[in-house]
Amino acid sequence: MATIKDIAKEAGVSLGTVSNVLNKKHNVSLEKINLVNDAIKKLSYQKNIQASFLKSGGSNQIAVIFPSISSPEYYLLYESLEGYFSQKGYQLNLYLTDNNPSKERLFLEKISGENTTFVIVVSCLPDANEYKQYFDIELVKIIFLYREIRNAKYYLGLDYESILTNVVKEAKGNGDKRIGIVSNQKYKIKEAVELVYCFLKHPFEVVKFIEDEHLSSIVTLNILHAEEIYNAFYFCNQSPPKIYTINHQFSHDERFISYYISYDFIVRNIIHIIEGECLELFYQDKGFLFKKSDILHSSLRILAISSPSIEALKKILPHFKRQTGIQVQIDTVPFVSISEVLTNPKQAKQYDIVRLDMERLPLLASYLQPFNFIQQEELASHYSNNLIKRFCLVNDQLYAIPFDPSIQVLFYHKAIFDDMITQRLFYEQYKTDLMPPRTFEEFNRIARFFDHNLMLKSPIRYGTALIDNPEILALEFLVRYYSLANKPILAQDVSAFSREIAFRVLENLAELKDNAVLLHGSWWDKAVECFEKKETAMLMIYSNHYSHLSHNMPSSIGCAPVPGNMPLIGGGSLAIVKGCEKYEEVRLFFEWFLNDEIHERYVRLGGVSARKNVLMNQALIRQSPWISLIEKINFNGVRENVDAKGHAIDLVKIEKQIGLILFAFLNNQFNTDVAVEKIANIFRNIWLYRYSL
User: Fold this and answer.
1) N or C: where does the chain have the smaller number of CB atoms within 10 Å of the terminal CB?
2) 85 within domain boundaries
3) Percent of the chain beyond pLDDT 70?
4) pTM above 0.70, yes or no
């Protein structure tokens, strides 16, 4: 295996130069960078990440000890853990014991000689204190899963007693009289079976599967066991009884009646323990999903604008029809038509549900019907209170549920930003590192660098795109204004608007225009297309306009907060149109859409969601890395759809007025001072109108 000494010798440079290149320091000339990179490629050198951690005095080692990796409860858990901790720079080392205590002790002896930070274990030992014989680390850094053993400081598992009870209740409700329970699990199962037996009593019987050929149903805690049982009956040329099983991820299989449980809870709590956060004490089984309702043979009609999230919803609606018999039709119209339809009684009565932008929710609430079958407390188990406040409530009353809540995110081509030569060229020009911009001055500098630097060996031609559509130009102004002002504009005092800040923002946009690809009269999709083709290095956009690209190239894309860290909030919610008479159909639709599994399918197909189960789902985060960023931001952004007194604001009208001024300004119809004064007049008129009421 090649070392840095070999690299230095091959390249004809010093060890210090090789180290500086590997650590991406900028005190190396382009010539030497190329020499070192050529040597690395020739010798197939790979950096020793663990050595880097040890050098810094820390460790990135996490030992994972499982009985096996064949069962879903193990491989799904490991997959999620590996996905999360690899992003944090940790290395997971997996050890498989085959449920052999001696083998587990041998692994402990081996691991004890390594610099291990945490141990995550499904143990077959009787007492956690045994681990003290092998490790210097405290028991608080050993996390025991699924099997609760003596003296464990942290134990995370599933309530099999409750699960079995719920499964047997379901079997009872289905008329089953003789139930077989099959399991090879040693832990918690004996107690669970006894509990079930006590629960059933007469006339139900709990019997051993192999001793009775006249069972009405069989219960097993493992989907693999369910398949084995089914196959055994098949090869015996017998029809099996109903098979109830425990499943860990949704899969459509009509052979079984599946009770779903989620490992997200366990994964989240492992993360919380390792990162020193509070444990989540609330756990809820998914249970029996998608139990068919009485077929209604009815219909619903939804009014919406076209978006990736609406297209994702269309793809899963056939499932809703199968479950309920309700046909859902979605009519997509231009953005401006949503308000026109809702405010026209004749047109509005044609619709039952509307997808409404959050900026319009307070203004149009009088044309909506408040929810009376969903409580705010119920939503709080799925969404953050901050999100509910912005997307659901009007005057503390629930008028909508989140559909595709979005927030501005900065996307960038990570491979380009991390390229050593690109970094060196940038450093030579600006004497600073190339990294995601933290201010809009830095944003413009990067845009200027890519626009003028012809030495780069990449298809990147521009730093970013600027859409000169007035509706979008207004947002470009506002996000820059808020980043400098760090407070709302529509406050009580007319002096809240700063002409000085507005002047700086306009100058910033004028500079950007000269260093960006200008997209005339376009929409967000055109900017996304340019970014996807790698014509631009950066893209600042709402996440709901970007979601479909996650299927194309997630690993090569970086994401960061927008410059200034005062993003605009966007996206929308689903609301009930006032006068809707299809109460049961609407209730069933929202009950279905709020299901965790439905939401996961919706997101995988390009939809956007801010549900807690989505924001912590490691499989989804690997597909769409910005999900974890959105979770951290928690929709702490700006969108002034109400004033300081809680009165609704026609923000669309205001943004259109600002956008038209910006369009004229960027097309040199008047200078910066005139543009500032015109924008100031817009807000002055708003205040005057408000105070005249």
Assistant:
1) C
2) no
3) 82
4) yes
